[in-house]
């Protein structure tokens, strides 16, 4: 489960950083796009591009009008892992926790501030600890 997870996360980070930078800069042509991709890939993964590779051309999110929101995948995974950890602590079939989740998260339909609703459910601000435990198997909260 945890084999090559660091490479996977660095690959994702490369795409996130490229997405954010590409939407911030006025890139004029394919040469500038490739130059940006090469720089970010080198900075995040410390790997050169495959000769002749055109990775940005295959990054569909850029063409789908995603407008620099690719990082949202990990953001939502972090919140979801923290919420799931609550269910793990209280029991996956805990009716009280399930009702809170339904009432605070599912039924609000985006009317209320999402972060505030998550804080109400968790009783605190969300953190990335559960996500990192899920991704790596390491519990950073209980390190000695």
Describe the structure.
By secondary structure, the protein is mainly alpha-helical. Helix content is 61%, strand content 0%. The chain has 7 helices and no strands. α1 (5-24) packs antiparallel against α2 (30-45) and α5 (95-106) packs antiparallel against α6. The chain is elongated, with a radius of gyration of 19 Å. The chain starts with a helix and ends in an 8-residue tail after the last helix. The model has no long low-confidence stretch (mean pLDDT 86).
* Element string (H = helix, E = strand): HHHHHHH
Mean pLDDT: 86
Q: Which ranges are low-confidence, i.e. pLDDT below 50, for 5 or more consecutive residues?
A: none
Give the helix/strand class.
Answer: mainly alpha
The major β-sheet equals: none
Helix content: 55-70%
State the end-to-end distance.
Answer: 24 Å
Count the beta strands.
0
Beta-strand residue percentage: under 5%
Global Rg: 19 Å
Number of DSSP helical runs: 7
The shape, in one word, is elongated
């Amino acid at each position: 489960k945890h084999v090559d997870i660091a490479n996977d996360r660095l690959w994702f980070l490369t795409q996130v950083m490229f997405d954010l930078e590409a939407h911030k800069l006025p890139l004029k042509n394919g040469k500038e796009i490739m130059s940006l991709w090469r720089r970010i890939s080198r900075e995040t993964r410390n790997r050169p591009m495959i000769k002749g590779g055109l990775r940005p051309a295959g990054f569909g999110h850029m063409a789908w009008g995603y407008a620099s929101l690719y990082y949202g995948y990990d953001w939502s995974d972090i919140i979801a892992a923290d919420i799931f950890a609550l269910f793990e602590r209280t029991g996956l079939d805990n009716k009280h926790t399930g009702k809170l989740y339904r009432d605070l998260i599912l039924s609000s339909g985006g009317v209320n501030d999402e972060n505030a609703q998550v804080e109400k459910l968790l009783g605190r601000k969300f953190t990335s600890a559960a996500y990192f435990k899920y991704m790596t198997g390491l519990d950073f909260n209980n390190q000695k």
